[in-house]
Amino acid sequence: MTEPQDRQPPSATDPSDVGRAVRALVLTHVFPRYDGDPSAAFLLTWAQALRQAGHDVRVIAPHDVGLTEVGMVGGVPVRRVRYADEAHETLAYRGEMHRIATRPPFGPPLLGAFVTELAASLRRAVRRWQPDVLHVHWWMPGAVITRLAGVRLPTVVHLHGTDVGVIESRPWLAPLARWALDGVDRIEVVSTSLAERAAGAIGVVVDGLNPMPVDTERLVPSEHVVSLDVPVILAVGRLVPEKGFADLISAAAGLDREVRVRIVGEGPDATRLRRLAADLDVALELPGSVTPAEVVDEYTAADVVVQPSHGEGFGLVAAEAAMLGRPLVATDSGGVRDLLERGLLVRPGDIGTLRARLVEALEDPDLPAVLRAGNRVRRVLSPGSAVERTEEAWRAAIVSARTRGVR
């Protein structure tokens, strides 16, 4: 990341006085490592849209095997911070940070190095570049790193769901979250459900609702590729228990017709899911991860898309399927409530109702309801809408910080 010369931040007393072009430093523990990387691809869409709107957005993220320390991803400058030798840089990009970090004997020291190195990099970037605002994604570890770094500038912390879920399963972490969030200028969330969960788990008041954008141009309804033999039931996501993929396999086992269950993604639950499918005589395909472009082909080729999650901060799979006009079954798992009509949703873990909805989706899908939802989702999740929401958040944070005498 090229470091520009120091400069003075703009002066303002209210949001309307803050200039449109903002120098924004982004801190995140996961960011696409290369073009086409599915790791938090929505963050790249978000950053690209903001840069196209004229903002200077630069990212600090952890290093990973084979990457350069400074580079560009999709036109976005990224500084990747080393925290161990490459063989041991295992905390980020694997969806298992909260588990790996507590696993002895190497987890806690690795987490300590991770936090220390990213905090040091954040301090250097703020000192050299003097950004107008810091935008932190996920309170854990981002807000903790920010607090330890001791930087003084307008700060937005964006909660996405997994970071709140960690506290719900480990309530003893709530004081750490409150400490990390104390003094930030604005807290944003990706769904109304997550705002309620954050208030209950952490005791914080959320300032704004800001779902992440999707590349709406690649999500255009098209003619379905009809299955010639066995219908395909598609799910997409990290292979972990909370995604509810075991429920989907169990529901498919009770259907009176042969189907193929295809789950796109990687994760530690793969072996358990294969064993369950074998025990229940369900044809299961686990092709691993695919690129964002390839996942559109997966949606289009499926006879029905299912999001069986037990908890979702947002509900990206349901949103993408709806925009593509695909027959859809989803659980009432939180964030998806902002996207779909309640009548389309199933109670999480209710395998019997999930099976019944699969039958309906395969035989007589309510496509008008899905298309209505897709049109609404397209408006909310367009990159342009995300830019407007984020600009509002930045301006509010800058004014808040000046009120507190930070800048």
What is the gist of this entry?
The protein has 407 residues and is α/β, with parallel strands linked by helices. It has 14 helices and 14 strands.
What is the secondary structure topology, with strand pairs?
Elements: E1 23-27, H1 41-52, E2 56-62, E3 70-73, E4 76-81, H2 97-100, H3 107-129, E5 133-137, H4 139-149, E6 155-159, H5 162-169, H6 174-181, E7 186-189, H7 192-201, E8 208-209, E9 232-236, H8 245-253, E10 260-264, H9 270-280, E11 283-288, H10 292-301, E12 304-307, H11 316-323, E13 328-331, E14 345-346, H12 351-363, H13 367-380, H14 383-403
Parallel strand pairs: 1-2, 1-5, 2-4, 5-6, 6-7, 7-8, 9-10, 9-12, 10-11, 12-13, 13-14
Antiparallel strand pairs: 3-4
Helix pairs in contact: 1-14, 3-4, 4-6, 5-7, 8-9, 8-12, 11-13
Q: Give the amount of beta strand, in percent.
A: 15-25%
Number of DSSP-assigned strands: 14
The backbone outline, from C-alpha atoms, is globular
**Main sheet properties:** 8 strands, mixed
How far is it from the N-terminal to the C-terminal residue, by CA?
A: 24 Å
What share of the residues lie within helices? 25-40%
The low-pLDDT segments are 1-18
Q: How many DSSP helices?
A: 14
Strand order of the largest sheet: 3-4-2-1-5-6-7-8
SSE class: alpha/beta
Query: Helix-strand pattern, N to C?
Result: EHEEEHHEHEHHEHEEHEHEHEHEEHHH
Mean pLDDT: 89
Estimated radius of gyration? 22 Å
Describe the structure.
The structure is a single chain. The chain is of the alpha/beta class and 407 residues long. Helices cover 40% and strands 16% of the residues. It is built from 14 helices and 14 strands. The strands form two sheets. It has an eight-stranded mixed beta sheet with strand order 3-4-2-1-5-6-7-8, sandwiched between helices. A six-stranded parallel beta sheet has the order 11-10-9-12-13-14, with helices on both faces.
